[in-house]
Hints:
Blueprint: E1 2-3, H1 6-28, E2 33-39, H2 43-58, E3 62-68, H3 74-86, E4 92-95, H4 105-111, H5 123-130, H6 139-150, E5 159-163, H7 170-178, E6 187-191, H8 198-203, E7 207-210, E8 228-231, E9 235-238, E10 246-249, H9 254-257, E11 263-264, H10 271-287
Parallel strand pairs: 1-11, 2-3, 2-4, 5-6, 5-7, 7-8, 8-11
Antiparallel strand pairs: 9-10
Helix pairs in contact: 1-10, 6-10
Bound molecules: nicotinamide-adenine-dinucleotide.
Nicotinamide-adenine-dinucleotide (NAD) binds next to helix 10.
Amino acid sequence: MNLLDGKYVSEKLKQEIAAEAAEVLETTGRKPHLVAILVGNDGGSETYVASKMKNCEKVGFKSTLIRYDESVSEAELLAKVEEINQDAEVDGLIVQLPLPKHIDPEKVTEKIEYRKDVDGFHPINLGRMMRNLPCFIPATPYGIMLMLEEYKIETSGKHCVVIGRSNIVGSPMSILMARNATPGNCTVTLTHSRTQNLEKLVRSADIIVAAIGKKNFVTADMVKDGAVVIDVGINREVSETTKSGYKLYGDVDFENVAPKSSWITPVPGGVGLMTIIGLLKNTLASAKKEIYQ
Ligand code: NAD
């Protein structure tokens, strides 16, 4: 078993991003700038946004956090998005999900200017990704692709089974793995809550991407010897033994699956750290106008 080490790869890529951000500052006179909007006080969202902001500072980006109370109206939020869309000093805008029930996430996602949509959730970016055109790729799948690239994992011709079909992870991941690109060129099976014979399908996978949100969902008996296992899950449980008061678990039973796998991501220390890299790289590309003018 070999570890796909998110800590190592993310630190390495952060150094490269920092060097490029310094060049942007030198040539344009300003830092790449990411704005994040956070609504409410969801514990997970607070942690993710704080980490995004901290990492921006680390690589020499400017970051701005705009906070709203849970009760903010949809209209007010959309007006703020529009204001930031028009702000020439902002390169990337993300609205942390999930949003409160009275706000339609689709409306918010579509309101974000696609040229600043560094989460890559806007239909224009998703459509362009589908067509293998330059675009912002959703941060988590992008981070996973960068990790596969870094470790030179062979994907061409392999059978990749993605578990979970969310708009932010499973579905885009399935498209990226099937694209005529490197990494890519997989034969992809996208599975979900209605899939029949899931265990059998997963057992036939050379590459497994688990994005379900259920602790230890993928067990050793579901994994073929030598499979590459990507664990996207972040399941938080209260813990008395950690300083933070909670402990993170993946969707994969790491202890028993790891000995059977050829490569595997740990949780924490795997995909989560790479997601930040996807976001930083999209923001940098926006500041450099590499994708859209
Ligand atoms: P989601 O919660 O939106 O959807 C879960 C998916 O799992 C659905 O498509 C559903 O069909 C599928 N599913 C549920 N039960 C199933 C079953 N029994 N069999 C097969 N499929 C089943 O998913 P999400 O937002 O992609 O999140 C998934 C996990 O990944 C969560 O733990 C989340 O916290 C984590 N996540 C991690 C990162 C990261 O950076 N590491 C980023 C995003 C999400």
